[in-house]
């Protein structure tokens, strides 16, 4: 929450200076996403999971990954006076995504017990931190290469796509565990490790492509699953 609010403050004050750099606000959003990625694991390891923690996490998420990235986008005005429309769509879809996640989490926590917690196998819809990461990573990429926002139209199209994906039923993989239970789990871990190494080597260049790859991999797997289901139904009917 501190990182998200700090990004908002920077968007309000920092862009009025001669040496304006929206990439600084974007890096704060990435820092927020990194912290968000470990808080749940820390809670489960320490057996500190609770309904209170779930609610607090979502309140922090709606600020850091809903409001903050859209303040950043609106400050840049890539779509002129109409920039507010996709920004509002993103924020509303993100809030709906978090509310749906909380309802599902409450059911699972009730089944397993608060002290135990649970490990998600996948996400239903694009997680809002990933959507915010895509926005932040693109801003960082543009300011590193050109010191200005490029391809404003496609960028706003991406914001709309991210909004739709958050409220969709497209499944997305969670971070892999360190358990080497199968060839699939080992392969998944290797892919994630390779993506992380690429980002570490050149974060300004590789952050956006890696996030984009994750986003479209979910869509690809979802379409593949639908096609396979249709084929199975056709075989049964035959």
Give a structural overview:
The protein starts with a helix and ends with a helix. The protein is globular and about 60 Å long. The chain has a single domain (2-175), classed as Four Helix Bundle (Hemerythrin (Met), subunit A), CATH 1.20.120.1760. Helices cover 75% and strands 3% of the residues. The chain has 8 helices and 2 strands. The longest helix is centred in the last third of the chain and has 35 residues, at 203-237. It has a two-stranded antiparallel sheet. The chain has helices spanning 2-13, 22-45, 51-76, 84-112, 128-145, 152-166, 183-201, 203-237; strands at 122-124, 171-173. With 238 residues, the protein is mostly helical. α3 (51-76) packs antiparallel against α4 (84-112).
Distance between the termini: 56 Å
Low-confidence stretches: 114-118
Helix content: over 70%
Question: Any idea what the shape is?
Answer: globular
Computed over alpha carbons, the radius of gyration is 19 Å
Q: What integer is the average pLDDT?
A: 82
Physical arrangement of strands within the biggest beta sheet: 1-2
CATH superfamily: CDP-alcohol phosphotransferase transmembrane (TM) domain
Question: How would you summarize what this structure contains?
Answer:
By secondary structure, the chain is an all-alpha fold. 75% of the residues lie in helices and 3% in strands. Strands 1-2 form a two-stranded antiparallel ribbon.
Layout of secondary structure:
Blueprint: H1 2-13, H2 22-45, H3 51-76, H4 84-112, E1 122-124, H5 128-145, H6 152-166, E2 171-173, H7 183-201, H8 203-237
Antiparallel strand pairs: 1-2
Helix pairs in contact: 1-2, 1-3, 2-3, 2-5, 3-4, 3-5, 4-6, 5-6, 5-8, 7-8
């Amino acid at each position: 929450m501190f990182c998200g609010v700090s990004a908002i403050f920077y968007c309000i004050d920092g862009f009025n200076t001669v040496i304006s750099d929206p990439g600084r606000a974007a890096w704060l959003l990435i820092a927020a996403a990194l912290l968000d990625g470990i808080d749940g694991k820390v809670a489960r390891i320490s057996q500190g999971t609770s309904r209170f923690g779930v609610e607090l996490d979502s309140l922090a998420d709606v600020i850091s990954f809903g409001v903050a990235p859209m303040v950043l986008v609106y400050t840049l005005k890539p779509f002129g006076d109409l920039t507010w429309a996709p920004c509002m769509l993103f924020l509303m879809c993100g809030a709906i995504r978090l509310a749906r996640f909380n309802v599902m989490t409450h059911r699972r926590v009730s089944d397993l017990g608060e002290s135990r917690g649970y490990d998600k196998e996948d996400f239903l819809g694009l997680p809002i931190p990933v959507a915010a990461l895509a926005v932040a990573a693109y801003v960082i990429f543009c300011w590193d290469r050109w010191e200005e926002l490029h391809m404003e139209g496609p960028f706003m199209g991406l914001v709309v796509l991210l909004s739709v994906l958050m409220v969709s039923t497209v499944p997305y993989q969670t971070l892999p565990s360190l358990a080497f239970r199968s060839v699939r789990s080992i392969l998944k871990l290797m892919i994630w490790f390779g993506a992380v190494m690429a980002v570490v080597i050149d974060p300004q260049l590789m952050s956006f492509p890696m996030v984009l790859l994750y986003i479209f991999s979910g869509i690809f797997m979802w379409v593949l699953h639908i096609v396979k289901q249709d084929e199975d139904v056709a075989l049964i009917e035959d």
